[in-house]
Amino acid sequence: MVLVSIRVAVASNDGKYVNQHFGHAQQFLIFDVDLDGAYEFLELRKNVLSCKGGESNENERMETLKIIKDCDAVVVSRIGQGAANFLVSHGIKPYMIPDFIDNALEKLTKD
């Protein structure tokens, strides 16, 4: 089976720019992205912050995972190594691409 698209969670508070740190993301915009670069917005999912005051909380991180568990990748402005390792261990590839969402999704297809 050939993978023709991926599901991507984008951390953005304005719907235009990737501008949220993974642990501080209040919401994720969910997209299906074709490998030819075309994409479709599916929905907005509210999130529970997993990092408060510089401290990560494992319970909240698991809640975030439940919200994006059907995604193949997550695009954020920043992510700590612990959170990145956590995502990878659950089959989600993290990307730090602080850019316009259009540009960030295009960059994913070239990775």
Automatic annotation (TrEMBL):
Domain of life: Archaea
Dinitrogenase iron-molybdenum cofactor biosynthesis domain ranges (all copies): 14-109
Full protein name: FeMo cofactor biosynthesis protein NifB
